[in-house]
């Protein structure tokens, strides 16, 4: 998908006023399976651009007091997830044979950097991560031979195809590099000027698997773990970090506690 509108404004504004040494990067990684797909994004800020992003969070999700707290970061995490999901639902960024009717957006997971916590005027190296999950109503070997993606122009892209999925052609990727192994095929490069990428493929047919009937008197128990809520996940990640580093962020002027 294209970068969200408010992130685009932040980037555009910072490009106009911030020196080149203050970096911003946006990387894409698409992992395709026969019946589902994950699109992962990694967003990186440094220098004065990290300050701009912190100030945006403080104004938009906090109380504009010059400090980003854990609760403000959590609200940012939730809002970004909702924004991404709505943005993709409005303009689906994946198609199979020129249609998205057999593609379901399952959800979006965000992981905002804990380095955003602290004074807004302190420069940091910020790395935010986003994962978007899709499901195919029909497996790829039954539904088509051409996939289309809409990404952010001029950003890095990696597409991983599973074993048995043969790559026939690629369009829209600059500096294209293709690597084949026994585990599958990896395509590296950058999105072109339009941000549109197409891959043509074929999939080997798998031999039928004979069914084996088994019986057991054992009581079946669910092996699926109970999933944490977003708040539980957030604070699990927050407090699993180095506690001394966290204290310094929350108490920058008095971090030496006994």
List keywords for this structure.
6 helices; seven-stranded mixed β-sheet; 258 residues; alpha+beta
Describe, in plain words, how this protein is organized in 3D:
The protein is an alpha+beta fold and 258 residues long. The protein is 27% helix and 35% strand. The protein has six helices and 13 strands. Strands 5-7-2-1-9-12-11 form a seven-stranded mixed β-sheet. Strands 4-8-13-10 form a four-stranded antiparallel β-sheet. The longest helix is centred in the N-terminal third of the chain and has 21 residues, at 70-90. The model is unreliable at 8-21 and 215-223 (pLDDT under 50).
Question: What's the gist of this structure?
Answer:
The chain has six helices and 13 strands.
Beta content comes to 25-35%
Given the C-alpha coordinates, what overall shape results? elongated
Q: What structural class results from the helix and strand content? A: alpha+beta
Q: Mind describing the biggest β-sheet?
A: 7 strands, mixed
**Roughly how much helix do the residues carry, as a percent range?**
25-40%
Query: Helix segment count?
Result: 6
Please report the distance between the alpha carbons of the first and last residues.
48 Å
The assembly state of the depicted protein chains is single chain
Low-confidence spans: pLDDT under 50, at least 5 residues? 8-21, 215-223
User: Mean pLDDT score, rounded?
Assistant: 82
Q: Roughly how many Å is the radius of gyration?
A: 22 Å
Give the SSE string. Answer: HEEHEHEEEEHEEEEEEHH
Strand order of the largest sheet: 5-7-2-1-9-12-11
């Amino acid at each position: 998908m294209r970068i969200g509108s408010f992130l685009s404004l932040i980037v555009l504004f910072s490009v106009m006023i911030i020196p080149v040494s203050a970096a911003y990067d946006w990387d894409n990684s698409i992992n395709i399976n026969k019946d589902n797909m994950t699109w992962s994004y990694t967003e990186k800020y440094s220098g004065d651009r990290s300050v701009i992003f912190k100030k945006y969070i403080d104004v938009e999700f906090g109380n504009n007091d010059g400090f980003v707290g854990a609760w403000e970061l959590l609200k940012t995490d939730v809002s970004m997830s909702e924004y991404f999901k709505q943005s993709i639902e409005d303009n689906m960024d994946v198609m199979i044979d020129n249609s998205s009717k057999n593609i379901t957006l399952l959800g979006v997971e965000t992981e905002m950097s804990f380095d955003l916590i602290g004074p807004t005027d302190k420069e940091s190296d910020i790395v935010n991560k986003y994962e978007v999950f899709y499901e195919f109503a029909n497996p790829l070997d039954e539904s088509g031979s051409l996939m289309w993606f809409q990404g952010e122009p001029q950003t890095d892209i990696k597409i991983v195809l599973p074993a048995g999925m043969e790559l026939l052609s690629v369009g829209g990727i600059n500096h294209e590099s293709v690597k084949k192994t026994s585990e599958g095929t990896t395509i590296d490069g950058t999105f072109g000027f339009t941000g549109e990428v197409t891959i043509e493929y074929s999939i080997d047919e798998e031999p039928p698997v004979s069914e084996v009937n088994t019986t057991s008197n054992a009581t079946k128990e669910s092996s699926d773990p109970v999933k944490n809520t977003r708040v539980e996940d957030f604070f699990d990640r927050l407090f699993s970090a180095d506690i001394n580093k966290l204290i310094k962020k929350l108490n920058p002027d008095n971090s030496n506690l006994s």
